User: What shape does this take?
Amino acid sequence: MNTELGNASAVVSRWTKVPAVLMVLGGVGAVAGFAMDPRQLGFSYLLAFMFFLSLCMGGMFLVMVHHLFDADWSVPVRRISEHLACLSAVMAVLFVPLALLAPQIYAWMDPAHADHALHAKAGYLNAPFFYARAVIFFAVWIFLSWRLRYWSLKQDESGAAACTFKMRKLAAAGIFLFAITLTLAAIDWMKSLQHQWFSTMYGVYYFSGSVWLTLGTVYLVAVWLKRAGPLRDLVQPRHLKDVGVVLFAFTVFYAYIHFAQYFIIWNANMPEETFWYVMRERGYWWGSSMVLVFGHFLLPFLLLLRIDAKLKLPLMVPLCVWVWLMHFVDISFNVLPPLHLEEFPWRWTDLACFAFIGGVTGFVFLRSLARHPVYPLKDPRLRESLSDHEVPPPAIAEAVHSHEGEE
Assistant: This one.
């Protein structure tokens, strides 16, 4: 255990300066942007915040699904998802500037913009309830993510099967809380930018994109840790292929949800719903729409269609980077049109906020990787996860045998 932890620390420590520099440069840029145009800075910050919140929420979902299905394929990469999920506490702190900038971002907070739609939704869309819900969301996410990782790390020490049962029960209750809170958060922080709009699928839409982004990130981190050493003897081609298979599944699922939302609104042809898409068919947003159709769905779908493609690193690594770019376009498609409808939508403050929030979350994530074992050392499914491959190396075999001896 100490050897694995030491190797991870040595590998990760080489990269911690990168997010630290991004954090400082991005923070300076964000402060300058606020001094120049607080409203623009608010939208830029929201864009970056919702992007990195996707990684946190996607990681939490993958951890809970692992326990709910008692999976073995995800054991070697589960710790990566656990650390991503535990960024919930960091995101809670990063929400504070967003809370302060909210009156600059959300038109419904200004009484001058009151209309019939806002009057009908006043019981939900009001500032006190908005902030109260945010506190509840982060309280739920922090509790779920940190308790799941707590019992996972506890099992590294004791190997007790009781830890698995606790995580399974926590995931069984947590998946419902996760679905409710994530849906409401997506409605509060993105959909309410245009409070007149209706969509019952919006929460699932944001969720599907979040998991898609996280799967691409997990694939990249797993390849990095395998090449660098800490996961060299644990992550096998089968595990990478399985992550790629789920990435392919969520490529299709995201496209299905987005098309279903568009088709239902188009078919109903109700002005209070269609205006949202009409706005996004104008100016640069028409191009962004086509990028989402062909870049977010068609290109990944065709590249991932072959089974062997999921193991070709020269294909998968650039594709996972492409996933980041497409998710950024997707979040921009949702956040920026109310601010920039006709002109070029992106500003330098978008890059500054992205660097700042990405630097903070990246720094904390790397620190978590360095401080804890990079995989669940005594997970009951560890041996089964390696059963299709050669005999595990001595360090892993010793951990598995010690766990079986304690049982």
